[in-house]
Amino acid sequence: TLGEWIEENCKDIRGTGGYTGGYRGWEKTANNPQGQTKILSKSTEHNINVYVAFSRLYKLTGDKKWKERPLLSQCGMKKKATFGQAL
Asked: Is residue 52 within 8 Å of residue 44, measured between CB atoms?
């Protein structure tokens, strides 16, 4: 699922935790030898979106992993709101 892709590719335990912005660019080709680059920055907006998506997946599936996973994004959002720090 898209939720699994987010968990596997964007989860970030650095600093306040949360989820990064994913990837920038396109697949590696002759015209694009660098390929995609991982976006290491995290934003409150991205983490709110992840929180809502994972919470809805829990409501739809009842799978407890979707209930637990939003806690990482929520942790990052609370710390940013409390301390005014960038994620």
From this structure: no
- Return the SS3 of 24: strand
Q: Give residue-wise pLDDT tens across range 4-33.
A: 999 999 999 888 888 999 999 888 889 888
One-letter amino acid at 25 equals G
Tell me how far apart the terminal alpha carbons of the chain are, to the nearest angstrom.
Answer: 25
- 0.85 surpassed by pTM: no
Residue 81 tokens, joined? 């709101």
Rounded Cα distance, 22 and 6, in Å: 8
Residues in the chain, total? 87
Q: Which two structure tokens, joined as six digits, stand for 63?
A: 């799978």
Give the Cα separation of 55 and 31 in Å (integer): 40
